[in-house]
Records
---
Amino acid sequence: MSSNGAFIIDKNLGARLDETQADLTRVNADGLDVVPPTDEQKYLFDKDGWLLIPGVLSEAECAEMRAFGLQLHHDPESIPERERSAIGGPLQSLTDHPMVVGFMNEFLAYPGLSNQICYGFRQESATLFYREAGDGEFGPHNGNGMLRLPGDSHLYRCIPGKANSALTRVVWELNPVEEGNGTLLVTGSHKSVFPTPSSIQSPDSPIWDTYTCPAGSLMFFTEALTHSGRPWVSEKYPRVAIFSCYNSVGSRWHNWDPHPELLASMPPLRQTLYRGVYVGNNLVGGVML
């Protein structure tokens, strides 16, 4: 039992959650070992509210996925209807990439609703972001996740040794992101207890942080973080990025589902990413702890 178990109360009679009983998924739907975040990555995400992991995908993977994204944006009718989304074709493998599963196991999964044939979290949206120079808008939103009302999903909770990010964004950058192009982020604002100052309304405010990265990079941020898009400025190449949201199995923010034929064709474990939104006995192949 890790020390944080003493702080986590299970659903019945005030008993602490026995983390030794957790059966968090160890292998993804493609048979690849899950990659948990390092201690440093966990510390940085909890401290900052966002985490960038550069160059996760190979050049060949990026080229294939980018080509599909460009086809999806420019000529969607050429793609079979069931694959016509940001989880279609080669992009499907990103839904439960080993690093995504490892991160969600740590910061989102509900232990009693996870096992080796069922993820303990859900994917509830996936969108292709295609931006050419001048596309995109500045619009700050969210923050103050420690104080949101239940049901909002934009929550961030933490105790010594454990944190939970209720609605979590995953971004795959399939083209390089250079200075002046990345999503804007207010580091630490997921834990803030004061309203943001008026200077937040300027994209040039020093309050904003951002990032640069090579193609194939992976970025996580809690939706409780204050963040904003901004116009894409690069004329070398467009932004081609996959934005997804993950949530608990008992909560939902977006009105989105995969095409039913695409869902039916997925490996059974991957299908559990899209199961119904409820808690009681919502565990494939087992009984809720």
---
Amino acid sequence: MKIDYDSRYFNPKDTLECGQVFRFAPYKNGYLVNSADKIAYVYGDGAKTVIESDDCDYFYGYFDLDRDYKAIVEAACAFNVPLLTKSANLCSGLRILNQSREEMIYSFIISQNNNIPRIKGIIGRICERLGEKMSSPFGEYRAFPSTAALAAADVSVFKESGAGYRDEYLKATAQRIFTEGIDGLDALPTAQLKKALLTYKGIGPKVADCVAFFGFRKTDSFPVDTWIEKVYFEDFKGTLKDRTKIAKYLTDTFGEHSGYIQQYLFYGKRLNL
């Protein structure tokens, strides 16, 4: 099965390499993308971006293909911030994924104080050890482990996979989610959701912002890391030092579009636009 989409508003490289997801790898003319227990081959084909998968309905939702990103780009440009305008136009194909919420939580616990190659490696090793073996037209792969499997695993599995001090966080959070579930988080307003996420072991303010936006689609979230601090100081001439206060300032500035704008600014600054 196959999906074709206008490449101006769906660029696989910008979407996958902007820091919001970690389970993808180069493959032929594009990427193999894993989410939960599913896989897709995504690549550019001239004016179109193509998704090939046995689960096209899933990946249609995963890549958020029913959302009008032309309107999001126009809203970003309307703020008249030079870096934002340039990044939104050049990266108009950057889409925000609809990821598995549980997978998001575990992945971003691993991401703290870490770099993307190491994050990808840790997640890959955990999947190899605990994930179900799957087959596809693109070869065998491992599903992301279920919460039950993560909760039951000895903490040494996470340590030996390279998680370091995050091993205890993964174990404790998996056990809590296995016991309580996370369905009750869905209906919470953004501020209450972030407050609830902060009660999970290993989730601090930045990770809570990431999970709120990437996992629960709270677009009025603005994760602040070293790149966004750089944006704040250089492009907004800001003077605040506390990341929580910087996040509030930026959220107050950009409102309901904050999450999307954070990604344009983050990616644009990384690309040195």
